[in-house]
Amino acid sequence: MTASSAPPRTPARLSVRGLTKHFGTVRAVEDLTFDVSPGHVTGFLGPNGAGKTTTLRMLVGLTTPTAGTATIGGVRYTELTDPARTIGVALEASTFHPGRSARAHLQMFAPAAGADAARVEQLLALVGLTGDAHRRVGGYSTGMRQRLALATALLGDPDILVLDEPTNGLDPAGIAWLRSFMRGFADSGRTVLVSSHILSEVQHSVDDVVIVAHGRLVHASPLAALAALAVRTVTVDSPDRAALTDLVTRRGWASEPAGAGAPGALRLLHVRAAEIGAAAFAAGVELHLLTEDAPGLEDVFLRLTGQTTGVAA
Ligand SMILES: Nc1ncnc2c1ncn2[C@@H]1O[C@H](COP(=O)(O)OP(=O)(O)OP(=O)(O)O)[C@@H](O)[C@H]1O
């Protein structure tokens, strides 16, 4: 399956400038600034409650910012002359009338988006819902609702697609399909902004990442630049953990608990296994675990968003 064949009318850049939203004392989004480029898939990442959905809602005029702006091709959503052709949005927990079929749902929204009956059928086929299109949405699984939300977002054949946690509830085949769909959409010069709280779910789909935590921007770069932040680590353990801890302290190595994969072991940062082995040998500390870990992007993400415990350098 491929993205719609129509060429983009305007390569539209999304720009967020000083965007802020407070709900009473809750600072959901705080002075957020980032751009999303046409022709790219951008991952909008952060842990639960980081402010992703609130940001996306402000982008499409559903929530009023406390301060700052979110613009699409230079204008606010409410000022767009043809919003359905410009931006399609599938927000988290999209609500559908439970008694309506998927086909009836799309047919109801089609006129406002300038879509005809043929487009509705084309979209049902695209998202793999043709066989279930006559069924009441109330009986749909989470993944089927996600597919319907995507079809709804695509009704107006938009230049920009904003997807909030679209992999929630999707089966592996659905995730693989969504990945290639987003790639095709971006490769046709259009723009995709996709949110997730798990980097690994989107890391094979995105060109750029915008990472938020506690409503604030913590990192924005091409995905490749994020990989460069990966820290070399070595997992190490000894039958004499007190002696090992003493050695680590004396050497000044940054360390943290290795976690569930190796309970009680230490993970050392910014140091090579050979150096640790030599130092342990010289100090007479027996090691029964000494493993260089492949630096993982998820680790970088967890560190940037403060989701790790322990002492990192
Ligand atoms: N309407 C609201 N009233 C009060 N607080 C709200 C409202 N909407 C969001 N919040 C709060 O704002 C913060 C950010 O929520 P938001 O849903 O934007 O985060 P998120 O990054 O999308 O999280 P998740 O990954 O769990 O969906 C949270 O503390 C949330 O409780």
Automatic annotation (TrEMBL):
This is ATP-binding cassette domain-containing protein. Residues 14-239 form the ABC transporter domain. InterPro entries: AAA+_ATPase, ABC_transporter-like_ATP-bd, P-loop_NTPase. It comes from Flavimobilis rhizosphaerae. It holds the Pfam family ABC_tran. Coiled coil: none annotated. GO terms for molecular function: ATP binding. Keywords: ATP-binding, Nucleotide-binding, Transport. Belongs to the ABC transporter superfamily.
